[in-house]
Design brief:
alpha/beta, two-stranded parallel ribbon, Rossmann fold, 278 residues, 7-stranded parallel beta sheet
Length: 278
């Protein structure tokens, strides 16, 4: 008898996370979906729509990420973890945990959540899917001495650097755990027409306001891309450790994205600042 997969989707209260949940429920109705969102009412509404349990966590607070992990560890297995929550913000802004907000929400919080769930993920031979962005190519200018982008801050640069780190995280996890059954991938869902960027006054925010739905991909299409990686088979539909564009093909990356020494350094330093071990 085939056991249904358990798929945990963060950032599921709206946008592509909610769209992916709807897509998976419609096409694979036996899947055990578990939704995570920041807004209780919106997350509950989506969860009710797709008949799934939900959890609430604000990734700008790492104590809430730790509480979320404790709740998710009650699951018997996690076959797929979607690190989909994220956003672009004005700043630099320091969180209650002492980190730059964009860096924490897009990179540190997913890193911490994955670490805290690592044994369940390994036991389940799971896939970890990170929602990245073409901003990792267009806007990133990573300075190893200032990984959080406190200096020379712009919303776009900080977001691009955080999404570059998302790509690095996929590679670092692959290098360390793929031989133990863990598969990882990062992808660009498309430039999606959602409320993304609402908390920023940067270029992307103005572009969204000016263009609206006219120049951007509907959330449903981005959700289809997310659902594709969540339900796809590593080694068949996508290769572990790689970054894909919105056409589900290997994406263009900066040279730094393949710098193994830099990838390992950032991975190790992140574990140190978060006080975790792998």
């Amino acid at each position: 008898m085939t056991t249904s997969q358990t798929i945990v989707i963060t950032g599921a209260s709206d946008g592509i996370g909610a769209a992916a949940a709807r897509r998976i429920r419609a096409t694979l109705p036996d899947t055990d979906l578990v939704l995570v969102g920041r807004n209780p009412a919106k997350t509950q509404a989506v969860a009710t729509e797709v008949d799934a349990p939900f959890h609430v966590a604000d990734f700008s607070r790492l104590d809430e990420v730790r509480n979320l992990a404790a709740e998710l560890l009650t699951l018997p297995r996690i076959d797929v973890l979607a690190n989909n929550a994220g956003g672009i913000f004005d700043g630099p802004s320091r969180t209650v945990d002492g980190f730059e907000l964009t860096w924490q929400v897009n990179y540190l919080a997913p890193y911490l959540l994955t670490n805290l769930l690592r044994q369940t993920l390994l036991d389940s031979r799971a896939s970890v899917v990170g929602t990245s962005s073409i901003a990792s190519v267009l806007f990133s200018r990573f300075d190893p001495t200032d990984p959080e982008t406190f200096d020379a801050f712009s919303p776009n640069r900080a977001y691009g650097n955080a999404k570059l780190a998302t790509n690095w995280f996929a590679k670092a996890l692959h290098d360390r755990f793929h031989d133990r059954g863990l598969s990882t991938v990062a992808f660009h869902p498309g430039v999606i027409a959602t409320n993304f960027g609402a908390e920023s006054s940067g270029i992307l925010h103005h572009a969204y306001n000016l263009a609206g739905d006219r120049m951007f991909t509907p959330a449903e299409q981005g959700g289809m891309n997310l659902a594709y990686f969540l339900t796809g088979v590593p080694g068949i539909h996508w290769e572990s450790g790689e970054y894909y564009n919105d056409k589900r093909r290997p994406g263009i990356q900066r040279r730094a994205a393949r710098d193994r020494d830099l990838i390992d350094s950032v991975f190790t330093e992140t574990a140190e600042v978060l006080g975790v071990q792998w």
